[in-house]
Amino acid sequence: MVRGVRGTWCGTLLLAGVLVAGTSGCGPETPAEPGGPPSGTSGPAEPGTAATTTAPGTTTPTGATTAPGTTSAPAPGTPSAPGTSTADPHPAEVLVEVVVNGGLAGVSNKLVVHADGSWTSRSGTEEPRTGRQTPAEAARLRAALEDPAYARVPERPTGDPVADGFQYYVTYRHRLVVAGDGERPAALQRVFAALPEGGPPTNP
Length: 204
Description:
Blueprint lengths: L1 H24 L25 E5 L2 E4 L32 E9 L4 E8 L3 E5 L6 E4 L2 H12 L1 H4 L14 E7 L2 E5 L6 H9 L10
Antiparallel strand pairs: 1-2, 3-4, 3-7, 4-5, 5-6, 7-8
Helix pairs in contact: 2-4
């Protein structure tokens, strides 16, 4: 009887020893370092290098900054600097110029007619006189100058010169025609008839 009780007690002690040994084989959990993140979590990302995960395999960078020295382009439609001005329009084109020389007093006067019908007459030392032809008058002068017959007018007088007479120098499209006081070709006479005041003045 005593031997049976002792055997049972020894078996119980042996089982308890095995259980205690099995428990001591599993070491205690290593504690986290002071100030570190809890076990199983990652620490905060460093500034400028962190990335936010949006989908598996895709990341969106955060904290992106503009490279030093980079400047933004000016917005389209920026007005030009003040003080910029456009070029002035050109004056009216000269249609015909007539100069008269000679006479007893030796005059040298000039008449200039512009394409818009405006004209300027200069006589000696007097103040220039100005005016403007009517549209019909301007058209008549242009037609006389554009007449093919005028293009065939001799560039120099063909008759005998008149003593103490006047000479007229007509310039149209870089072509110069010289006429005297004598008879003139009909095409040239039509031009003089269409000029303002019949041509430049002959008074000094």
